[in-house]
Amino acid sequence: MNFYSLITSVFLVSFGLGYIKFFGVGYIAHHLYTPQDKSWILLLVQSLLTLGPTLIYFLAGPISSAFPKRKIMFLGAGLTAVVLYFGHLTSFVGTIWVYVFLTGTLCGFYNSSKMSAIPLQAVDLEKSTTAVNGLMTIIFTVAMLMGVPLGTWLYENHPLAGLYIIVGIFSLGAFSALKCSYPQEELMPLSQAFQDLIRNTTDLLKVFWPLLLSGPLLWGVAAAVSLSITAFAEARFLGSATLCSLMSLWAAVGIIAGNVLSAVPALQKNRFRVSFGGSVVLLLLIYFYPTIVLAMEPGTVVDDNFKIYCVAASLFVLIGLIFGVTTNLVDSAYLEAVALAKLEGHGAALQSGLVSLFSFVVSGGVGYLTFKQLMSPIDQFTMLAVLSAMASVPIFLYSRRQNALHH
To answer: What percent of the chain shows pLDDT beyond 90?
Structure first.
């Protein structure tokens, strides 16, 4: 029952995040700016959604350690539904940017508790943390990317119904989380959790800094790449707005395959070498992506570019595959280690906070530079490839450290 309740809740909340991201982009582009501004609006919305989870790290960690995960997940998803319904009733009084920020913040509490529940769920199922984390990554990715085209389509065609649907999705996700109960869950007093936070954070960073830098940075790059490719495809007339929003679904196909592939024993045995190689291939694919697509000379008529759209989508599948293998091998190694140290609450919160931090910095930085016309949409891919290269360095260093310890 725990397992099915957890995956149902994760699916619904992740779907809601993808949905609200592109529903919000549609609202902002049509009410505050213009559809031609989507290339930077996409990135700034993504950045704002991750700002809250970054700021609440010093709260999310202790709360995940002091209270049952299911209650935190319930409140995070449930309050998100309340905030969005209030925004609907008041026509998003103030500015919709505030509601985007609050959605990301509340879901940050949810995600921190979800991540710390993964090792507990692995024990409950008698499966490896790698396998459970891989499954959760697949569910998170597929659900979020499924929400993207629906959010885009509903805003363009049925915006009022779209608001009611998203409130219902987060509400169902909240009540599903209530059924996730783990008898082996060890809680500590909140005051003690706060006292331990700085010490545990320092220890985790000291020991696991390569994994805490590489994995979250790759997640930050991936979030920006997904949005950059979507905006790039629409700007080059590879498809309609809804069809181009489906580009992210092709990445999900690759990510699913990559997560399944990462569980192969041969890859597990050489996880850090494979991760390093994967990060190098990833940066090359990101860098050459626009070059390959533009070499096919897309025209200005959408219907004439469908074959080019198929090639662009296939390349995105490959990017997702390499990303899925690389990040699951790195992230599962970290989660296994912190679970053994009985620090899954703080450890998962720190990882979640860093993923949010890098998503905020990468998406926000690229979006801001594009908004100020200091960077072209093509230059985005160059910067993201450079950041992917930076993520490969700590994987290489950690691999050498592990080899030295082994010998």
So the answer is: 23
User: Would the pLDDT of 407 be above 50?
Assistant: no
pLDDT in tens, 47-69: 888 888 888 877 877 888 888 88
User: pLDDT higher for 60 or 318?
Assistant: 318
Domain positions in the chain are 2-179+190-406
Three-state SS string across the chain, please? CHHHHHHHHHHHHHHHHHHHHHHHHHHHHHHCCCHHHHHHHHHHHHHHHHHHHHHCHHHHHHHHHHCCHHHHHHHHHHHHHHHHHHHHHCCCCCCHHHHHHHHHHHHHHHHHHHHHHHHHHHHHHCCCHHHHHHHHHHHHHHHHHHHHHHHHHHHHHCHHHHHHHHHHHHHHHHHHHCCCCCCCCCCCCHHHHHHHHHHHHHHHHHHHHHHHHHHHHHHHHHHHHHHHHHHHHHHCCCCCHHHHHCHHHHHHHHHHHHHHHCCCHHHHHCHHHHHHHHHHHHHHHHHHHHHHHHHCCCCCCHHHHHHHHHHHHHHHHHHHHHHHHHHHHHHHHHHHHHHHCCCHHHHHHHHHHHHHHHHHHHHHHHHHHHHCCCCCHHHHHHHHHHHHHHHHHHHHHHHHHHHHHHC
**How would CATH label the architecture of 2-179+190-406?**
Up-down Bundle (1.20)
pTM: 0.74
